[in-house]
Input
Amino acid sequence: MLLFMKPPKVYKRNILSPTALLLPFEKGHRWINLDEIIRLEGIGNYTSCIFADGSALLVALTIRRLQDRIPAGLFVRPHKKHLLNRAYVAGVHPNMGAVSLTNGDRVAMARRRAIAFRQDMKA
Output
């Protein structure tokens, strides 16, 4: 006797967009414009999204999963915990190992990523 099994369900959606990022909220998902996001900060298996209006949101996704959803070239990664929107980078301070943003935040820059980060910012 042959048993037929149902194939496993695959929950894949088209989550790539050139102008927006799909973020999970308590009551579903919502598209957020990439222009509104200043930076993403990884906190373990969560990511804190800091927006241009000063608000922040904690999302239950890793920074790596969010980075995969963002089109290449819009954000840069100076450190394993930070992903920065290029439009909000005000300056790079290699002597201090930091990156300053237009909202006044300073973000650490990894020594090992410093050269690649500076080349990435020039491109």
